[in-house]
Amino acid sequence: MSIRKIAELADVSITTVSRVINEHPYVSDAKRQRVLDAMEKINYVPNRHAINLSNGHSETIGLLVPYSRNSCYEQLIEGALEEASIKGKQVMILPTYFDENKEKDYYTFLRDKTLDGMIITSRTQDSQFLNDLQKYGPIVTTELTSQKSVPSVYPDRQKIYQDVFDFFF
After folding, report:
1. What is residue 152's DSSP assignment?
2. Measured distance CA(67)–CA(94) in Å, rounded
3. Which pTM was predicted?
4. What are the residues facing 61 on neighbouring strands?
5. How far is the C-alpha of 81 from the C-alpha of 34, rounded, in Å?
6. In CA terms, which of 24, 49, 71, 166 is 20 to 30 Å from 13?
7. Beta partners for 119?
8. 60-65/90-95 β-pairing
9. Residues of 17-43 as b/e, b for ≥16 C-beta within 10 angstroms?
């Protein structure tokens, strides 16, 4: 079913139907209700991907991991899923198994706007590649990179072990 049919049933313009589907605020309550009633009458379910494309965001972050069967990555994945749930967002888990071609394929999700951003936990690409990737959307790595413009969140292992050995000795 098309939005033309909904517009016809609700006696409104196609633009009004589009605004209701996209939750645009500039629609009167009466018109909004007529559109919603028409949608229900014909069992119309909006295509979420089309809406996201129209709005310019997917509400989804990609989480690039080498694999998930490791306690470190399991905790990272669980933390990302929990936070996404709190924020009402989604996480797409992207396991690479350290395959450079698979990793590059996943990066196209950012370029193609399938993802709003990407968290990269392990990578085969160099830091300059990540720097260039940022033109397609925000990325954050969990590894230190040589590019200051690429945000990184990581434990400073050298400092941690210095503190540990200072404690012991």
Report:
1. B
2. 8
3. 0.71
4. 91, 117
5. 37
6. 49
7. 63, 140
8. parallel
9. bbbbbeeeeebeeebbebbeebbeeee
